[in-house]
Amino acid sequence: MENLIEELKKQIIEALNFEGMKPEDIDADAPLFREGLGLDSIDALELIVLMERKYGIKLKDPKQGKEIFRSVRTMAEYIKENRTK
Amino acid sequence: MIYRIADNIICPLGGTSEAVYEAMLAGKSSSRLHEGEEGGLEPYFASVFEKDLQFAEVPTETDGMTRLETLMACSVDRALKQLADNGYAGLDPSSPRVLFIISTTKGNIGLLKHEDGFSKDERLLLSHSADVLRRRFSNPNRPLTVSNACISGLSAQIVADRQLSGGKYDFAVVVGADLLCPFIISGFQSFKALSRERARSFDASRDGLNLGEAAATLVFASREAARKVGTAAGLNGKYLALAAGAIANDATHISAPSRTGEGLFRTLDRIKPALEGHKAGLICAHGTATAYNDAMEAVAISRASLDGIPVNSLKGYIGHTLGAAGVVETVVSMYEMCYGNILPVPGYHENGVPVALDVVSSPRAFEGDAFIKTVSGFGGCNASAVFVAGNESGFVIGHNVNGMEAETVQESVQEPVRTRIAASLRTEASGTSPNDMYRRLGIDYPKFFKMDMLSRLGFAVAEQLLGDYDGDLDDAAIILAGRHASLDDDVKYLSTIAPGNYYPSPALFVYTLANIVAGEIAIRHGMHGETTFYIADSYDAGWMESEAERIIAEGKSSRVLFGWLDWYDGEGTAELSLMERTCKPND
Hints:
The complex is a heterodimer. By secondary structure, chain A is mainly α. Chain A has a single domain, classed as Non-ribosomal Peptide Synthetase Peptidyl Carrier Protein, Chain A (Orthogonal Bundle). In chain A, 52% of the residues lie in helices and 0% in strands. Chain A contains four helices and no strands. In chain A, α1 packs across α4. In chain A, 29% of the residues are buried. Chain B folds into two domains: 391 residues, 3-Layer(aba) Sandwich (Peroxisomal Thiolase, Chain A, domain 1); 163 residues, Peroxisomal Thiolase, Chain A, domain 1, CATH 3.40.47. In chain B, the strands form four sheets. Chain B has a 15-stranded mixed β-sheet, sandwiched between helices. The longest helix of chain B is centred in the first third of the chain and has 19 residues. Chain B is globular and about 60 Å long. At the A-B interface, α2 of A face loops of B.
């Protein structure tokens, strides 16, 4: 799980263009939206693309993302359970 | 105030405005579910030109014109024919007194192919289509191309008002057009914005929009010219005028509508006085049937105390026709007003927006002599306009005020407004230099690196001009022009929908509109005035300066950020100026 979290942090930094940010700057348990990384609705959609591209998970309903994208850890847990690649 | 003298719509429902209106009145829709592609597009519900439709006049490529350009030319031809058939032969499109204004979001973007990369194909420049159209009608004037996301069609009409009011032209031919292609459809799908069913605007069960293809034309005349056109300008015995129009930015987010409907509210608040002496029978809303757009519109309409006016949306008939939408929907609303019917919103059963509106759910008589058209789009932009009906061509708005005609009164208070250029900056940029400019500014704006390069350049230069500016920018406008529009980002977005590697990126797609940079600057500096992006081959500084002056003279903004902004393939130029009013109009 910790490896997946590290991998995910790197992917988020790359996918969302966090210039100058390092994986250790992201708290795995901090909220991704508003506080924490301060992500917005476009970022949420981009995370949906990331899940599909890297892990073969297709989220049909963006509303599902609310729970899944609570933190890097919740995202990693969902990926672990549902990944197809 | 400008006057409608002719119109046309070509869409999968029909090839004339009348045919389209009558089809809608009969409850017909041209939208249907289209199959997706293996490993690519998901199924989508849209209104696209089909061979088997009765309307079989979809143009083919002729004379070196693309399908889009042929469609636009065909629409203009039919509008001019309508005028001639109605008895006016005096509009010569080759006259220097005629101006062409083109509204499109993506032009010929369907020609951008994976296998070629971007081959410097001039047809991908939006101004190319405008120039093709100008040449097709032997018009000597530089055409204006407005690319303002989904408000483009109404923006173009507001620009027409500005141009005709300037006195240089008698007629403005406003043409809006967009065609669908995988580029556009995939982008909206990446935003999870498309429904797989017929759009149900404002309904509780709405789940997204339908896209559509169309071209439409509105020919406007100045008051003097409209009087010459005379009865030929009539529509079922009535005469129509654009009485007031306004554009405003939410200044909150580049894709999410403002929860308070700030920009749309400001436009409605500004145009409301034009309703004085008239009865508004309809608000033809944008009503895309996405959750957030319709909710935002309801809030804005309510804030403007216009929620007693019947509301409809035409998206359930022909989908969202993008750059054509503002023109198509204005024309249909004109027919609704002049023929006395309000078209109901298909599939509307139960209020689904925070403030209940009088959404028209079954055919209803149009009662009144005015309507409001609203549109909103990516980049936080919003536009509204009031259209009024009168009994003679070139009629004067409103009633006699203290024995004087209202327009005469209006003209008498328009004293010269003094302006000055408060600051200017010109810079050439290349490679990653916009990033370096940003770093040198020493500000912390995490979203900067999420922007496309056009926006980064515009943001960084605007920051240098406005960062320490102590004037109030709340009502400030941003008008920009550029050559390549969003083509640099278009190419990058296209790479995310390559066959076999199909993962359309919403973060790239949102920047595939030229006007987004204006939205970014508006957000950063809290600017809620007009945001408009023109596409042009080269920078006409004098013209842009006069546009800025006109916006200030109209009292819409006290400051205007204007200039040239272009970026493509690692090279760019920015030349921005801030104009400010030095005294109030009535000082």
